[in-house]
TrEMBL record:
Catalytic activity: L-homoserine + NADP(+) = L-aspartate 4-semialdehyde + NADPH + H(+)
Protein name: Homoserine dehydrogenase
Positions annotated to bind NADP(+): G9, C10, G11, N12, V13, G14
GO molecular function: homoserine dehydrogenase activity; NADP binding
Source organism per UniProt: Cloacibacillus porcorum
Residue ranges of the TM segments: none
Length: 338
């Protein structure tokens, strides 16, 4: 079966997905039996390109790389719902900016696709945080699949590990580094960069959110904790109920002082349990230089999951990045096509 891919949001992640699809077209077919056509790309400023017979990715990527737009190729117009119908899409890759309050515009895109029986992969945390149960139910009712590997730890397969790899284990708690931008900033500040320069570099490298206050104030890590609580424990937590302190108050002096004492400062996120219940948190912590998390630098993330049957499992890998997150969309699409 040919996968007819629609893409919503052609920024860092969406463009990287197109690059990977184009580069690996033959490999994907030979290794995974994954064949595709990209039939629709919709982006706020770059415009809309559509061809139910399959878009010419070479031409589109040339335009994107030279002009950051679709140029004269952008000739389609219309409401996203109508475009989905006209394009013959069978799978939607959704990677518009995250809005943690409303889930929009991603939430409407996901509803439009799923209600038409079109499967969805998304890296957008907003809709998953805001309407997880509704979207899972809609997918089931309409015979579609919903995948979201990239919403936590980008392409590092944490969600797949949680759902499949450790099936049968009870999770007793988890802690880790779940935001790439802040870990990158703290690493760079430890090397002497200013906060502003480090944030600008994280943005240029495609790690930061469209509104980076979501990263530096801890909202992004907090919503990842909310999503993990839902997937692992079936628990609804409001992101406002996560104890949340970001990194905006962390100074170079504190980082240097911690280092002199044999510690490194990391923005740590986790869920712990005690007799009073579940405690989700995000906060900067001094970590002993000998602790495994102290060695996690740059945009890398890590999580240690404490389980009954396996004890502690630690997963380390990219937590942000355009190609790393495009990979999450691709792996979801390959899994869903099987
Ligand atoms: N970058 C990363 O490392 C990771 C990102 N994510 C998530 O993936 C998503 C995409 O991230 P990223 O590519 O970095 O973000 P970008 O801001 O680079 O790209 C988002 C794109 O979506 C476009 N857009 C905005 N609104 C609409 C709309 N209504 N319809 C169609 N397109 C729209 C934006 O256009 P314009 O710029 O004109 O507003 C932009 O081109 C986000 O939700 C992010 O949280 C998840 C994991 C890692
Ligand atoms: N802005 C996020 C991107 C991935 O979710 C991060 O830096 O971790």
């Amino acid at each position: 079966m040919i996968n007819n891919i629609a893409l919503a949001g052609c920024g860092n992640v969406g463009t990287a997905l197109l690059e990977i699809l184009h580069e690996k077209k033959n490999e994907l077919k030979e290794k995974y039996g994954f064949e595709y056509k990209v039939v629709l790309i919709s982006d706020l400023m770059k415009g809309i390109v559509m061809d139910p017979e399959g878009l010419d990715l070479e031409k589109i990527l040339n335009e994107l790389h030279s002009r950051h737009s679709f140029g004269a190729l952008a000739q389609a117009a219309g409401h996203f719902d109508e475009l989905l119908d006209q394009s013959g899409a069978t799978v939607l890759a959704e990677c518009t900016p995250t809005n943690l309050k409303t889930g929009e515009p991603g939430l409407s895109h996901l509803r439009a696709a799923l209600s038409r029986g079109i499967s969805v992969t998304t890296t957008n945390k907003g809709p998953i945080a805001v309407a997880f149960d509704e979207l899972c139910q809609l997918a089931e009712e309409c015979g579609a699949k919903l995948s979201y590997e990239g919403v936590v730890m980008s392409g590092t397969p944490l969600i797949d590990m949680m759902k499949n790899g450790i099936a049968g284990c009870s999770v007793l708690g988890l802690e880790g580094i779940l935001n790439g931008t802040t870990n990158f900033i703290l690493t760079k500040m430890g090397e002497g960069a200013t906060y502003a320069d480090a944030l600008a570099e994280a943005t240029a490298l495609g790690y930061a959110e469209a509104d980076p206050s979501g990263d530096v104030e801890g909202w992004d890590a907090a919503v990842k904790v909310v999503i993990l609580a839902k997937i692992l424990f079936g628990k609804e937590i409001d992101v406002k109920d996560v104890t949340r302190i970001g990194i905006t108050q962390v100074t170079p002096q504190q980082i240097a002082e911690a280092r002199r004492g044999g510690f490194t400062i990391k923005l740590v996120a986790g869920i712990r349990f005690d007799s009073f219940g579940m405690h989700p948190y995000v906060m900067p912590k001094e970590i002993a230089a000998t602790h495994p998390l102290a060695a996690i630098n740059g945009a890398t993330n890590a999580i240690t999951v404490n389980t009954d049957n396996l004890g502690e499992i630690t997963l380390v890998g990219p937590g942000a990045g355009r190609r790393e997150t495009g990979q999450a969309l691709l792996s979801d699409m390959i899994r869903m096509s099987r």
